[in-house]
Every structure is written in structure tokens, then in C-alpha cells.
Amino acid sequence: MKRLALETLNAWKSQPTRKPMLVDGARQTGKSYLLEKLFGQSFSNVIRLDFLETPSLGKLFEQSLNSTDILESIELTFNTTFNPETDLLIFDEIGECQGAVNSLKFFAEQQPKLYLVASGSNIGLLDSFPVGKVNFLSLYPMTFEEFLWASEEPATIKAYNNLNLSPAAHDKLFKHLLDYYFVGGMPEAVNAWHQNKNERSTQERAQAITEIHKALLSGYELDFGKYADKVSAKHISEVFNNIPLQLQSNQDGSVRRFQFKDVIAKKKRYNDLSGPIHWLEQCKLLSKCHPIDTKPQVPLKQLAKENLFKLFYFDIGLLTSVLELNYKDIVDQQFDYKGFIAENFVQNELVSHGYSPTYSWSEARSEIEFIIRLPDGKLCPLEVKSGKRTRSKSLGVYREKYQPELSFKLVGTTGNIDDTSLKVLPIYYASQLFNLE
């Protein structure tokens, strides 16, 4: 399966010298596949050390952190030779081996031409890290665009790339969007959905996705216990499972700010829940959107309050799974998309393209789901309307009050981008906003 992150890795490879590249992301988002199978294809040889699968590999870093010594030990352990000019070295699940983490500093200083990539699912939880000695790349679940690539439907992919707004293109792309709402972007689920799709019934495919989601969610629950003490793990789990419930509680308007009361027994303040929320954020299992209540201006971060935010699930498919929405529920659209699903989708698309944290705007009874900053510096309101009713008083209030040069609206119908001040697009084009001229 093709991944957008491959472009970043190829650009890193083309540099005359480079620091080690660290790929951070939630477990099962495809880090190992990206590095070994996709990126590794462009190298003569790939050596991969998996510190989760083989903890004993940590011994290679106990006697010396000198890069030459480590490379010699790796060659002996794997009974192979390593050519720094043509080969790729992968440190997989590096968070399981502090010695390997510490070695990155010496590889950066002593072997600047080496192709060394590392990956981890708990990088944000590490006690220490060689600051300034690595390049970072965050990998999230597959985006809607990557989901389309996996469908292997050239005409549909072409329509998406060309920002096609015709009814025919909309019917096709919106159908894929509803599929994506159910399947999500976890690579295992995406592969199961598209693989041999003409040979299996929709019911069989949907059942396979449901089972994959259950296994993934169980795996995350186990991770809470593995990387946190018993009390903290319970609190992390309670916050993680409460996010969908709070999202679901608001079906019509914008997602509300996260409420701290009644999530954990006898805990009702931000300070009581900040630890579990930070843990989940560091592990890329949730993302934040900070509401601001004044005129948006750069830097938006200065207008946000630390204890006021919306929380979103990192994968839309796992979200619908937790809420027990089956494939028919989503395709029949009986739940009117429940605006929070559309908003969570847009949040994930923005985060996957490097826009994190995100920001929203509210004043009195008016609310704009997102305030985005374009490459040219413009701050633009972005309204999300999940259904076919696209009229919005909030966007009108915002435009009249602040007179933005450009505004966006994402809708459940075909759009119109002819207006120079207001661009209306189907919701599946969320990540294409930054490409509009």
C-alpha cells in the first residue's frame, strides 16, 4: 500500500548528509511496513532490528555506543555485511531499547551519510532522548487519499486528484468516504477491505473489519497496562473510552469541549485528567482542537487556553467501531452522519498533514469548527456541514465580523470553488484545501 510519508523519506535519502530519521506513531499504523517494504525497496540491502520482538538485541548497545562498534556487532549478529553507502538500517520499536535510543546521537555525529531510520510507538513516553540529533516523521492512520490509492480505481483516484466536482465524481467519492468512515485508516483494516473485494460479499468484508477493530482496541488496552502503572492504566483507559461517548453526545452542532467531570470517579478537574490525556496524546491516540473566543490572529497558540479543548479519536474507523455503528448504519446515513463523525474526519485529515494542534472559534451561539492557516499566511474559517443542508449562520457571523479574505465550507454535497472569497467543497476534499490557488 502506498503512503504519503514515503515522499518525506525519499527527500531525506536524497540529502548529501542526514541525521537518523525517527518515525513516530501509534501502534499498528504501518511504520514497519513503510520503512522495510516501501522505503526499503530503494536500497540494496535492509537490516532490521526489532527490539520488541527480540529484546536480546539490546545487548548490542551495552558495551559501546560508538557507531562503528555497533555496526560491527550488528554484522556479526546477523551474519552479513553492511554497506553504509547502499544499505538501510532500521531500528524498529526503538522505545524498547534505551541504548539504541542513546546511540542515535553518535550515529548522527559519527556517520552523517548513514541511512538509519528508527520507529517507535511510545516515543513520547521516553525519559530521555538525543534532542537535535534526529529528524522526526509522524505516521498516522491512512488518510482518505491513501485509502483511495488502496482501492486501485484509477478513474476515481484521478477525479480526486483533479478536484472533480461533477455529480458523477461525487457519487463515487462519497461512496468511498462512507466506506472510509466504517473501515478507517488502520492499514490492516484497509487491506482487508480492499483485498479480493470482488470475491467476497459486503457482509463478509464488513465482518472482517469489525474483528480487526476489536483486536486493535484490545491491543491498545493491553498497552495501557504495559507502559503505565495499574492506577494510571485504568485512568488512561477510562479517558480513551470516554472520548467517543462525549463526541456522540452532540449529534447536530459542532463537537463540544471535553468535559472532565464523570470520566474518572471522584475526578472532575483538568489537573485530575491532564496526565492520562497527555499520555494518550503522546502516543498519538488522540488529538486536540483548541477553541478560541476572540479575533483569530497569529500565533493562534497564544489565544488558546491549556485546559479548554476538544478531543478527537485518532482513527475514524475505530471511533465508529467503539460506538457500534455497523456498515449498514453508515451507508444508509440514518444517523445523519452525526456531525461529530464528519468533524473527527476533518480533524484527522488536518493532523495527518501536519496541522496539529488545530483551532476552532466560538462566540455566543456561533461556532466555526476550524481556523486554518494557509501556506501564504492567511487565517481562514473552515465550516463543516456533514449533511445536505449547507446554510450556516455561524460562518456568516464570522465573515461579517472579521472580513476574512477567504473562507471554506465542507459539505455533504457537490461544491463550488468559483467564488473568490468562499470555497465550498465536498467533505472528502478536506486535505485538498491547502492546494487551492
Give structural notes.
The protein has 437 residues and is α/β, with parallel strands linked by helices. It folds into 2 domains: 5-138, P-loop containing nucleotide triphosphate hydrolases (Rossmann fold, 3-Layer(aba) Sandwich), CATH 3.40.50; 144-435, no CATH class. The chain has helices at residues 5-13, 31-38, 67-78, 98-110, 144-151, 154-161, 167-183, 187-194, 202-227, 230-248, 270-282, 316-322, 327-332, 340-352, 393-402; strands at residues 21-24, 45-50, 87-92, 116-120, 135-138, 286-292, 310-313, 358-363, 366-368, 370-373, 379-384, 407-411, 422-426. It has a 5-stranded parallel β-sheet with strand order 2-3-4-1-5, covered by helices on one side. A 4-stranded mixed β-sheet has the order 7-6-8-9, sandwiched between helices. α15 (393-402) links the parallel β11 and β12 (407-411). The two termini are 30 Å apart. 40% of the residues are buried. The mean pLDDT is 93.
